[in-house]
Each structure stands twice: as C-alpha cells, then as structure tokens.
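= Paired protein data =
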Amino acid sequence: MKMADLARDIARGDSSALPQEALLEWIVQQRWFSSKQRDVREFNVLDLFVLSDTEPVVAIVIAEARFGAGTHDLYQVPLGVRPQSSGWDEGVIDVSAGDVLYDALTDEAADALLVEHFAAGTALERPRGCVNFYRHGGADAPGGLLRARAMGAEQSNSSIVLNDRAVLKVFRRIQPGINPELEMLRFLADHDFANIAALIGWYGYSGELMDATLGVMQRYVAGARDGWELALDALSAPDAGFLDRLGALGAVTGRMHSVLASDSSDPDFAPEEPTLETLSLLSATLDEQIEQLWGELPHEAAALAPIADRGEQVRDHLQLLSHVGVGGRMIRVHGDYHLGQTVQADSEWIILDFEGEPARPLVERRRKRSPLRDVAGMLRSFSYAAAAVSLLRGAQAPEGWEETARERFLDGYMSEVDPTILPVGHAAVAKLIAIFELERAIYELRYELDNRPDWVGIPVACIERLLDTMPA
C-alpha cells in the first residue's frame, strides 16, 4: 500500500513535515510537560531519528519549547504514523490526509522496535547528531515482545513494562549531561549493590545540540509491592510486621550510602569534605526559597496559621547548615528518597528511581550532599503515611506508629552505614537530620499548596514541630 504524505516524509527523516502546531498543542497538555505556567513563545523540531520506515513509521523527535527571557526546554517525543484506515485511536496527536500521528509509546509494535534497537546496539546517525543504544555488561533485552503496558501515571517520564521482564523509562524532558538515573544505576551495579532493579541498557543522544541520556531499561521486579502502599495497608489494618521490615529498609539504605561512598578513584562519586563554600551555597539557596515561599503564602488560610509568621525562624534554623555539616562527608545520594521509591519483593527491599527531583536542574541533582538528606526524606515519608491514611483510607494511625517507624529505620541504618560519612556523635547526627527534615518540609509545603491544598496540614505540622523542638 502506498504511504500517505506524512508517513512517507517522516520515513525519509523530513522533520519539516510534522504538524508543529498540533504537536505543540498535544505536548503542553501532557503531565510530563514541566512548564505549564509559562507561555511557549516558539516551538521547533530540532531533530528526528527514524526507527522504522515501514508501517508503522516510528521516529524519535527532539523538540524545543522556547519561553521568554531566552529560556527553553527540550523534550523527547517518540512518534508513530499509521494509515487513518487502520482505525488507530491511542495517543492521537493529529489526523491529516490519510495518516494518524500518535504517541509511539502507546503502540506495542513501536515498543518492540525500541527493544530491537537495544538488542542490536544500533547507532542512528543524522547530520547534527546520533542516537545510540547500549546494553549494560552484556545484558539481554527482552526478546519476542508480545505485551507492553504503561506503568502508572508518571509526572515527568513515561515507563513501559515489556513482557513483564523489563521496564523502559523514557525521559521526556531532557537536559545536557548524563542523567543521574543511569549514572547511579551503573555505579551501584558495578560495585555489587544488589538492591536495585538491574540495569539492562540505555540510549542517548550526542551531537550539536548536546549529549544527553534519553532512556534506561531495567529488569522488571515481578510480584513487587510499593513501599507507600505497604505502609498504608499496615496502617489501615495494623500490621506490626511492617514496622519490623523498616529495620531492613534502613539497613539497605545504609549499605547503599556506604557503596556510594566507597570509590575514591571516581571523581563523580568520591566522598568530599563539606567546605564552607558548599554549605554557604546550600544555605543561600534555601534562604531564597524560604523568602519566595513565605512571601507568597496565603496568610489568611487557617491551615497555615501555625507557621504563617515564622519565616524568619525557619531561615535561622536552616542557616545552621553552615555550621553543623562539618564532620560528615558529602557523597552522591538518591536525591528524592521516600517510601514510593521502594518496593518489596521476596522479602527484599529494592530501591528505585535514582533520577532525583526532576524539577531541579540536572547539575543540581548530581551534586554531592550529606547522606542524611536521604534519611530525612524517608523519615518524612513515614510522617506522610501516618497522616495520609486518614485522608486516603479513612483510618487512624495507631498511637506511636510514626515514632516506632523512625526508630526501626534509624536503627537499621546506623547498623550498616559507614560511620565515617556521618557527623561524629548522636547529637550531631540528630541535629542534621532535623535540619534536612525541615528543608524537605519546605519543599512539601510548596508542592501541596500548588497541587493538594487539602494536604497542606502535613508539612505545616512538621515545620511547627521542628521549630518548637530544634535548638537554635
């Protein structure tokens, strides 16, 4: 059958054939589009890499959204084209004369093509750059692809489960440099840390635009239960066994940090002594965030009353980072650590999603920090679970549950972590954890104000508690 114009032109690698207005309209409506509060001044397709030039035509597009003041974001958009007569109706972007343009990740045939390129180690070359597919340590990509399904409703990326054997995570917003997800997985795998979903491969772009990671493929963890859901289940129908398992999660976390601090020969991972300059930079960044957030707080909101006039006190406490960081060491950390980034399978904890906080610049996500920042993130997750169970399940957390969860996790953590990467003494460790919990609660407050106003009371309670108990 003769191809319609769009399919034929895309198969030839002609990016000018794409309906840019329709593509932009579709992109800005996606959950992974990160700049919904800004107007796109200009939209351009910068490059196009053909994966298949026969039906379905499949291509990887690199697109640019430009905003005011010279700022821009880059996005990866895998596209598929099928004849309109095929009746294709998944992820439709545009219907033109005889063709349907759609999100290729909704199409098992397109997903199979991606897997084939991983297996073959393909290099797709264009005048301005190249897309390369790699396998890690000789790992095999899943062959004979029969089934593909989307995994959850993710905010910043798209993950596809392939034959219940592998998961392909496609990074939608791309930034120059190696993505921390790939960098951390490779390091942990190469240093024999077993509590991750094994890395199978990755693909990336290199060329005039930048060098960037486009996606990673990992082993699918069959039968896994999400840590957040396990916590809610345990709180809804009290399960002391879950609290016992938090000790094991703490131990796994301690081993992870010890491994991340174990190679002084790798400059990207070698532990570093905190300097006054790095601590002051962090303090200044937090100071700016606090000033902006407290300046925008709806002070009349009853839920904010306990902290509405305490911005200066928050700033004073966080400035302690410039003084109490000495004694510990700065290492690469998970960066966005909470129960939802863990699963349990066959009684083993597996840690996921090493990308860091996707809204932050990549260079910031790769920055070395105190390992206790991850610890504080997990402790805040226990607090969230204890509070959210009433909102989500209509149940009440048993008295003392959060305190016990914190104790079990910290006991397990301290039993396994390399003590040389922590400040000396229990008091110094506890103080630094409290400061990082306060930092995390500020982040949570911003998120809840923007997305879930009914949940604002959770970070507010943490901020109030820490301000009332943390010594100045």
